[in-house]
Design a protein that fits this description.
The chain has 288 residues and is an alpha/beta fold. Among the domains are: 120 residues, Conserved hypothetical protein from pyrococcus furiosus pfu- 392566-001, ParB domain (Alpha-Beta Complex); 66 residues, no CATH class. The chain is built from 14 helices and seven strands. The strands form two sheets. A five-stranded mixed β-sheet has the order 1-5-3-4-2. It has a two-stranded antiparallel sheet with strand order 6-7. 25% of the residues are buried. The N terminus is likely disordered.
């Protein structure tokens, strides 16, 4: 069976099945000085929860490090491959040495193993996962199919996650810190980055569901009707355009303003009874 097939089958069995063995059926751990361990330049995880890290550190202070970290030997010490949370927690607990499995790995293996470990533990947020996928593709020439095979995901899942990297920075930040779900991010990816930023406050402020966000995006992408007298007036009146856009963002739906000689009119569109109730509550503070 090919090396690629061996790797794919190993994904469900944990890191042990992915680590190349240098001899013997089982990997053996040794205690190494923490000060000789260098960070993994391919670490996909960028954010570490302070509370959970403190809890792990307290546990390590009492019980020690139960699961060894994985390192690769270098000229001047060791390079971390997997287990950065355990390493950080051990440092915080005051340990000077940590159990580690030492393996000789090429850069591709280091990134791949770090990614797979974090995915198996569900430690990565969607943006970190997307960035790790992109690293595999950019550094090593992997296709989306290659990445999907290595991490045990469907190609469509990998492709959808990669699209998060094309979102506006503000939307990416909202997905990364959990204010938006990955589904919200994919929905907003259907409009330009500039428009994503403009509607983000509406999606967050009104706590729109993924389905409601998809509907909002669909409406925003609808072609505008042929210019009429009112539309021409809006184009020549930047203040009117600004008010219309502010109302759109505040209400999360399509709003049109038309000025007349004696005043004007506001048209607020809705597409379901549920949405009418939401608009009623927002405009009156009451219950439909």
């Amino acid at each position: 069976m090919s090396d690629r097939s061996d790797r794919n089958q190993g994904l469900g069995r944990g890191l042990g099945a992915l680590i190349p063995q240098r001899g013997g059926a089982h990997a053996s751990a040794i205690d190494i000085p923490i000060t000789r361990i260098h960070p993994n330049p391919f670490q996909p995880r960028k954010r570490f929860d302070a509370e959970s890290l403190a809890a792990l550190s307290a546990s390590i202070a009492v019980n020690g490090v139960i699961q060894p970290i994985l390192v690769s030997e270098t000229i001047d010490g060791y390079q971390l491959v997997a287990g950065e949370r355990r390493l950080r927690a051990a440092q915080a607990a005051g340990l000077e040495r940590i159990p580690a499995v030492v393996r000789q790995l090429i850069d591709r293996d280091q990134l791949e193993l770090a990614l797979v470990e974090n995915l198996q533990r569900e430690d990565l947020d969607p943006l970190e996962t997307a960035d790790a996928y992109r690293q595999l593709m950019n550094r090593f020439g992997f296709t989306a199919d290659d990445v999907a095979n290595r991490v045990g995901k469907a190609r469509s899942t990998v492709a959808n996650t990669l699209r998060l990297l094309d979102l506006a920075p503000e939307v990416q930040a909202a997905v990364a810190d959990g204010r938006l779900t990955e589904g919200h991010g994919r929905a907003l990816g259907g409009i330009s980055a500039e428009l994503q930023t403009r509607v983000l406050d509406s999606v967050l402020g009104q706590e729109l569901s993924v389905r409601q966000t998809e509907e909002l995006v669909r409406r925003l992408k609808e072609p505008r009707p042929a210019p009429d007298e009112a539309a021409a007036a809006r184009k020549t009146d930047p203040d009117l355009q600004r008010v219309e856009e502010d109302l759109r963002r505040a209400l999360g739906t399509k709003v049109s303003l038309a000025r007349s000689r004696k005043g004007g009119r506001i048209v607020i569109e809705y597409y379901s009874d549920e949405e009418l109730g939401r608009l009623y509550d927002r405009l009156t503070g009451g219950t439909a």
